[in-house]
Task: structure prediction
Amino acid sequence: MSNDFTLSAEIRSDYGKGASRRLRRTNKFPGIIYGGGGNPTPLTLDHNEVLNHFQNEAFFSHILTLKVEGGGEERAIIKDIQRHPYKQIVLHMDFQRVLMNEAISVRVPLHYVNEDTCHGVKIEGGAINKIENDIGISCLPGDLPEYIEVDLAELKLGETLHLSDVKLPEGSTATDYTEGDDDQNRAIVAVFQPRAAAEESEEEDATSEEGGDAPADDKPADEGGES
Result:
C-alpha cells in the first residue's frame, strides 16, 4: 500500500449531544476506537483534517495511524462514518483497532478497467451499468488491497458480472456472499442497450414488417387489353 494516512486525535471526556454540538462549533467532531483487545476509547477529531483525506478514495480502505494525544499511536481501519444528510459535515466516526496477525473485514473499492474497449460497448453499441462500487472482504491487515480490478474487456451486450466473478487477491475471502449461494451472488456490473438505441431498433423492425408484399389491389394488372 503506497499511501500512509495519519490522523491526529484527542481522548474525549465530554459526552452527550450537547458536548458533540460544542465540539462541532470548534470545527471538531466525536469519534470512537474499539476492538483489538483494547477498551473502547472516545476520541475528538479535527474536521478539516479528516475532510481533506476524504478526497482520496484509498483513505476509506487503508489501515490508518491514529496519533492520540496522551495515548500513543493506534493502527485502525474505518468501520463507520455518520454524515450530515445534505451538508459536507462529518458527525461521527468509528474506528476498529488492527492487530497484524488477526483478519479484518473491510469494504474495498472496485475499479472497472477496459471500459473503452469493452466488447458490448465498442462492438455492439451498449452502455455500462455499474451496480456496485465496492466489495466486502476479509484478510490479514498486511494483505489489504487498495482496490480490486474488474476487467470489462470481454463483457458482451446483455451480459452481467456477479460477485462470484470478482477475482480476489491472494489471502482474501468475500464477506458479501457465500460460494454457491445464488441469492447472495448479486450483480455488480452489466452491459445494456441504451433506450434510444432500443427504440430505434424497434422502429426499424416495425418498418421492415410493414414493407412486405404489396396488397393484391396494388399489384400491376396483367398485360393485354381490356376484354
User: Anything to note?
Assistant: Residues 6-99 form a domain with the Ribosomal Protein L25; Chain P fold (CATH 2.40.240.10). The first helix runs from residue 17 to 25.
